[in-house]
Amino acid sequence: MSSIKLTSDSGGGTFEIKAPSSGSNARILTIPDEAGTLLTSATSTGKILQVKYVQSSSSTTISSSNFASVGDLNNTITPSSSSNKILLICGYNGGITNASGQNLQIKIRFTKSVGGSVSSIYESNEDFMRYSVGGGEIDYMIAGQFFSYLDSPNTTSELTYNVQSKQAGGSGTHYVFSKSQLILMEVGA
Question: At 63, phi and psi to the nearest 5?
């Protein structure tokens, strides 16, 4: 059987290419005309390496103009490489009660905590969710939104991601309902 063997100049490992054992197993390896990296099935680039999921178990009342955590919509993940990214996806189910919620505006954000240091990594515009109802016409209104963010944490330390919300305008009481979700995915880089 024919083979090509490359040995490292510094006395390290070797790389060997061998021909198939029979003609029916013939394979063709085409090398690109330009410089680059040959990816194999063992390469993690672009692959989803781990997924963390949490679903809120209770509703949260948001009645402040300051950001507050949305129930239990937080989770931790530890990247396997500092070059990998974390994709955050949130399914946010909110609503208002009674007509005092005319033109109520809700703003949301993702925060990240690493080693006790908390930072805001994504913040929506002022009217991520806007509830506009006429006086006395609607007693209850529900809306759902999805939002996402691709974070480059540049660490292999444990990360905690959190969803927060606040009232950005208008008046009334906003609720974030149970069954809202937060998904964290480590993406190989």
Answer: -130, 15
- As to burial, measured by CB atoms within 10 angstroms (0-12 exposed, 13-18 middle, 19+ buried), residue 141 is middle
CA–CA dist 155, 83 (Å, integer): 8
How far is it, in rounded angstroms, from Cα 103 to Cα 82?
43
pTM: 0.74
Domains of the chain: 48-187 (2.60.120)
Q: How far is the C-alpha of 8 from the C-alpha of 130, rounded, in Å?
A: 63
- The answer to whether the Cα torsion of 112, 114, 118, 120 is positive or negative is negative
Phi, psi of 100 (to 5 degrees): -70, -10
Rounded CA separation 42/134 (Å): 58
Beta bridge partner(s), residue 182? 54, 90
Query: What is the rounded distance in angstroms from the CA atom of residue 86 to the CA atom of residue 104?
Result: 32
pLDDT in tens, the chain (189 residues): 577 877 877 777 787 777 777 767 777 777 767 776 656 666 677 799 999 999 998 888 888 889 999 889 999 999 999 999 999 999 998 877 654 556 778 889 999 999 889 999 999 887 777 776 665 555 566 778 889 999 999 999 999 999 999 888 877 778 888 889 999 999 998
